[in-house]
Amino acid sequence: MNRSSVLLKGIIKENPVLVLLLGTCPTIAITYNVMNALGMAVSAAIVLICSNIAISLLRKLIPANVRIPCYIVIIAGFVTIVQMLCEAYFPAIYKPLELFISLIVVNCIILGRAEMYASKNSVLDSFLDAVGMAIGFAVALIAMASIREIFGSGSFLGFEIPILKDYNIPILGAVPPNGKVYGFGGFFVFAILIAIVNKIMSKKKKPKAEFGCEGCPMADSCNKTECEKEEAE
Questions:
Q1: Is the pLDDT of residue 9 over 90?
Q2: How far apart are CA 134 and CA 10, in angstroms?
Q3: 160 - beta bridge partners?
Q4: Which end of the chain is more exposed for a tag (fewer CB within 10 A), N or C?
């Protein structure tokens, strides 16, 4: 795979949220406004890029039988740095995201890229993979948050949209006057976006494709050596 494909695959083809369905907890929980989505996207991107680079650099030194604990320790170190920086310099953004930034340590996107890609590839490829996945994650978060904030509270980035001020739909998941956050809206918008992406992806797939590597959304990232050995046997 060429390096441009490594970078671009995470945006649509292997979008971590809308195709691989990873990281759904923060995706649904914090996307009731765009500012939260931006804060989470940047935080996750920093951790993902830094951890991918570190794990790729150390991949030949980390024993296979303790690789997951080692990955978690590395990721936790970067998460702690991000937490401290956010709390010190961006307290207004950090406050609603505090719990979810902590949970980046066990986020399936971060840990999945470490195990699936960074531990098997060069530093440059791992960096490009992380950037692509981070962009894909950000696109999903911002798309969801934009829909929920615009139609749920009649605003965007906290600025009111006059035409929607009195015609919003609080159940979409925005924070209405009573201070509640409706989770149903998150699931509803999430389902719509998944359906749209699936429709786009279905047009690109070969007709009557058999189940296997060709039909897997992670085929480009997968190490197929083991699969090929099993087929040969």
A1: no
A2: 8
A3: 155
A4: C
Over residues 148-157, the pLDDT tens digits come to: 888 887 888 8
Task: Reply yes or no on whether the pLDDT at 38 is more than 80.
Answer: yes
Using CA atoms, how far apart are residues 49 and 210, in angstroms rounded to an integer? 34
Residue 38 to residue 158: CA distance in whole angstroms: 13
Backbone angles phi, psi at 159, to 5 degrees: -95, 130
Looking up tokens 């996750």, which residue turns up? 44
Assess contact for 97 and 104: CB atoms under 8 A: no
**159-160 and 155-156: which strand pairing?**
antiparallel
Phi, psi of 155 (to 5 degrees): -145, 170
Tell me how far apart the alpha carbons of residues 231 and 110 are, in angstroms, rounded to a whole number: 30
Q: How far is CA 81 from the centre of its chain?
A: 19
For the entire predicted model, the pTM comes to: 0.82
State phi, psi for 191 to the nearest 5 degrees: -65, -40
DSSP lists the bridge partners of residue 155 as 160
How is residue 207 written in tokens?
């007709």
For residues 97 and 36, is the Cβ–Cβ distance under 8 A? yes
Quote the pLDDT of residue 195. Answer: 92
| 160, two tokens | 């009111």
Beta bridge partners of residue 159, listed in sequence order: 156
Q: Are 174 and 149 in contact (CB under 8 A)?
A: yes
> With pLDDT > 70 as the criterion, what percentage of the chain qualifies?
82
Cite the DSSP H helix spans in the chain: 3-8, 24-29, 34-58, 67-89, 91-102, 108-113, 123-153, 183-204, 225-232
